[in-house]
Amino acid sequence: MEKEIEILSMDPFKLCDRDRYVACVGDNGGTDNETIWMGFRDSALILIDNIVNHNGTEDELIYPIVYCCRHSFELCLKIVIEKIREIYKIKGMDSHVRIEDIHTHNLESLNIIVCQIYSVDRRIKPIYDKIIPFLSDYEFDEKGDVFKYETDQSGVPHLKRLNISQISITILKVKFVEAMKLCNYLIFELEYYIKEYKLHVFTNKLSREDIKEISKQLPAYTKWDTDGMVEIKNKIKGQYQLGSKEFGEALSLIKVHREFCSNIGLEIPFGNIKNKDIDIYCDLIKYYSEIENGSKIHSKKFGDDFKESLNIMQKRHKEIEKITCSLDMESIICIATFHDIGKEYEAFSEKIMYYYNNYKENSDIDRSWLLRKIGKARACAYTLRGMKICGQTSYYEKLSEGILEKNIIIESAFNDEYGVFTDSIL
Questions:
Q1: In which residue ranges of the chain is pLDDT below 70?
Q2: At 349, which helix (H) or strand (E)?
Q3: What is the per-residue pLDDT for 422?
């Protein structure tokens, strides 16, 4: 009783280190609109589940449920607008949308804003247009007040005025869940587009992805002066609605881009990994593969016996040093760079110097640790993927050839366009 009285005198918006449940907000929680959106979205679903589980009354809970659903849409549209505005900013363009334009509760107005600016990237429209039909269910609530209060400012009951007397919670939930999947996907994609635009590989009308797709349609660079190129040029210009100047800009970007130029038969080599270095790397992968499948004499797994485990480790270390003694550190770092790029789901060849310099500038980098990092079969899959992403055709082909010659089994690192082999272990 005394504890309850003490709690009643405390401020819930100040730290209480005795409370088991404390929400971190503001500067302490990294709060942004996406966090708030997730909160309202999840609250709606939790309240609906409470009704289904007989932990609440539908006639009472329906008000916070619909309010949370509607507010989730409002927040989603505002998040989408902000992210599209960020793309405009990176491109040095004016979206003509001001902060005060977004400070409205009207879903129809927010939808109009999105539709006015989403042409900045052709990938946005097909996703967003699938969300639009779901907005119509809530557009009657222009100010977001219908499910917050019984009446409007004039004292007129909201729901009676709108002739709403029943709400199907099942239909509401099914449509809301589907809509939120689309919203979540769109926000995720927009975040990716922003990362992509920050690489500064774009033109006025073309995104980095557009330029990459164009590079795949082009013939080899040696055939650009043939009649066939004219036909392809006209097709691409029509497909992307380009003038000759912007088409020329795209070609110029492709020729000097480490990844895209590989699609037209060019290559911008990174580092100086010699064929013998790749052969040694293949021997290292084979050694680790034999350990993993138990065919190597030192493949015995570590046990509880410390001396035995130490002995196994020392023997492996000696064998690895014997295999890689003529593999220089520069080649190891280059291979590790491709490995790190290939391991990233959202991998960009433009980040190659970032990964490379992380190793070069680290004076404490350990050679043995790097060899363990890149030597496993799965690590090799990442390395191959990284080479492909970075347009390193020669390295990629030589490493693939070595793997096949030594009968090393490598499975795909990711099931995407840069995947190494047909089977993926993900």
A1: 1-3, 294-305, 413, 415, 419-426
A2: none
A3: 38
Burial of 23 (C-beta count, 10 Å sphere; 0-12/13-18/19+): exposed
Report d(CA 380, CA 335) in Å as an integer: 9
How many Å apart are CA 181 and CA 30, to the nearest integer? 23
pLDDT of amino acid 425:
31
- pTM of the complete model beyond 0.85: yes
**Of 148, 163, 181, nearest in space to 65 by CA:** 148
CA angle centred on 297, ends 296 and 303, rounded to 5°: 105
Half-sphere exposure of 247 (CA within 13 A, CB side): 17
Q: What are phi and psi of 207, to 5 degrees?
A: -85, 175
Tokens 């082909």, residue located = 397
Residue 157 phi/psi, 5-degree rounding, is -60, 125
Decide if 264 contacts 254 (C-beta within 8 A). Answer: yes
pLDDT of residue 426: 28
What are the φ/ψ torsions at residue 424 (nearest 5 degrees)? -115, 140
Over residues 293-339, the pLDDT tens digits come to 765 555 455 555 677 777 777 888 788 888 989 999 999 999 999 99
Q: How far is CA 7 from CA 13, 15, 22, 389, in A?
A: 12, 13, 14, 59
List Cα–Cα distances, 27 to 22, 76, 372, in angstroms: 14, 22, 40
Residues with Cβ within 8 Å of residue 310, at least 6 apart in sequence: none
